[in-house]
Amino acid sequence: MKRIINALKGDIRFQFRQGFYFIYLVLAMVYIAAIYQVSDKAAVILIPVLIYLDPAMVGFMFTGGLVMLERQQGITGYIGITPFGTLEYISAKVLSMVFLAVIISLLISVSSAKPFNGPVLISAVILTSMFNSLLGILASAKCRSMNDYFIRMIPYMMVIVVPAIGFIEKTWALPFRLLPGFAGLRLVLSAYSNGVSPNFLSDYIIMISWCIIIFVPAVRKFDKEMIRR
Predict the structure, then answer these.
(1) Which residue has the higher pLDDT, 193 or 32?
(2) Looking at 74-83, 136-145, 194-203, which range is the least confident one?
(3) Other C-beta atoms within 10 Å of 179: how many?
(4) How far apart, in whole angstroms, are the C-alpha atoms of residue 217 and residue 61?
């Protein structure tokens, strides 16, 4: 645990030096400016959609990009010969992106001056960020360059975007509601709705299940492609 905490601190410092926090802050300012340009009725939908896309799309791309950057710098190559293992490395990466996603999501929510359920929002962002950070690690594990990563990430991004089809009120669209993208977005939307969503518990179960499902292959693939090769 101590190694994870130290690695987490190191990751946060590294991300800060690489300008990740500055980029995230600029994106947040753009989001906030866009929110104030729409009506209150539209803002209730726009805010949760932007908050979902932030840890989903940006978190996915940043995590994979960060892993690729450290690979090119030779950092990942030392993991196999140190007490610091693959599991600890990935845990620190995911937690650092979760921390950043929560901070920015709260900044957007508070700045928008719209009522929201804090615990629901934070937990939804944590689960969404965890899944997509692991997805970014899984997507980048086999890549040999940043260009390779940008190409390989396209099909993975469909996991984030396609589940929105689940909002279509048709029988054929129901299977999409079992995907993490749909559950994550609906959880963020529920943070801005009045009362508790009837799908609240099922969406949490879906998100937690997908985080567990993707964690094992992400660790194994990273260990195989980044460490042992």
Answers:
(1) 32
(2) 74-83
(3) 18
(4) 18
